[in-house]
Amino acid sequence: MVATLSVELETLNTDVGIVQTHYATWEEPLRLQNGAELAPITLAYETYGTLNERRDNALLVMHALSGDAHAAGRHAPTDRKPGWWNDMIGSGRAFDTDRYFVLCVNVIGGCQGSTGPSSINPATGQPYGSDFPVVTIQDMVAAQVRLLDRLGIDTLRAVIGGSMGGMQALELAINYPERVKLAVLLATAARHGAQQIAFNHIGRQAIMTDANWRGGHYYGGPVPWAGLAAARMVGHMTYLSEERLQWRFGRNLQTQEQPGFSLEPEFAVESYLNYQGRSFVDRFDPNSYLYITKALDYYDASAGYESLIAAFGRAQARFLIASFSSDWLYPPRESQTLTAAAQAAGRDVEYVELDSVLGHDAFLLEYERLTPLIADAIASV
């Protein structure tokens, strides 16, 4: 036990160490894109590094669907894993905490401290459940802008996000142009097409047809874990590449040498997906999965503008856009569409396609290759 703890503490010394989640609450309503008002609202957030006196060294990191505010470090020395982008945040890393103040916020609609379906509805004294209003990427960003105002951060040196985080970063750069100097968009898209909507619909149906969902009001009783686990398995498959799956699992059986001619899971990839489903239900609320995937499907960066080019015309930021060759959830053509629109609008944009077998998850895993690209872009602002 002593040796294990020593290793854990040594690891902590290479990153941001022990961190704490903070909470900010507003009583005044947030007017949502659909016209509804949400109040009160709470945002969970974490910070790494120090905000300088000029308050101009802030970086805002936006999380993806299954992420949260805990982007780096550990909440306790005994934590099994650090934050979800730990390899990118810390001294000398892409988001260098010796130079920058790094902020990450859990989105509204989530379930890791920010107001969402599992929060108490002040009108009933019970969890919102499916009475929670439908929120959008625009609403998530508007809530985070409130937090920037409270922290006294008028302008971000950079906003960075992958996947859904990239959509948030794009939204902030377009509709709050004076607040962003650099937008880093990783493995993302301007909007969903039919295939992306279809996969999210399958996941939502898995949850909503679980008998325990009960119209979204399952709090205090059995939770639709089976539906959420199935949704996670479907979603997780879109994050992986065929090459990665074949290399890691192939047709290997998990615990035996020959097929058992059974309907039970036998292949190694089946066991892997079951594990992904089980581990996800330990930390995520099924209703939040419904609301966040719906927000993804609703998002369209060109909405309210004549075109995507016109939308980029609003932005004042420089853009770094990166895609990954084996990503089939948001394939390189999605990033190329963003790049072409930014260029047509006269924006300063750099586009990079990285050859990777890691699929959509590459934006989280290819940190050694992303670090110099992002660090140089931030330093050049």
3D structure, described in words:
This protein has 381 residues and is α/β, with parallel strands linked by helices. The protein has two domains: 2-192 and 300-379, Alpha/Beta hydrolase fold, catalytic domain (Rossmann fold, 3-Layer(aba) Sandwich), CATH 3.40.50.1820; 193-298, Rna Polymerase Sigma Factor, Chain: A, CATH 1.10.1740. It is 36% helix and 15% strand. The chain has twelve helices and 14 strands. It has helices at residues 2-12, 137-151, 164-175, 194-208, 225-237, 242-248, 268-281, 286-298, 308-314, 332-344, 362-365, 367-379; strands at residues 22-26, 30-31, 37-38, 41-48, 58-62, 89-90, 95-96, 101-105, 120-121, 126-127, 158-162, 182-186, 318-324, 349-354. The chain has an eight-stranded mixed beta sheet, sandwiched between helices. Strands 2-3 form a two-stranded antiparallel ribbon. Helix 4 (194-208) packs antiparallel against helix 5 and helix 9 packs across helix 10. The longest helix has 15 residues, at 137-151. It starts with a helix and ends with a helix.
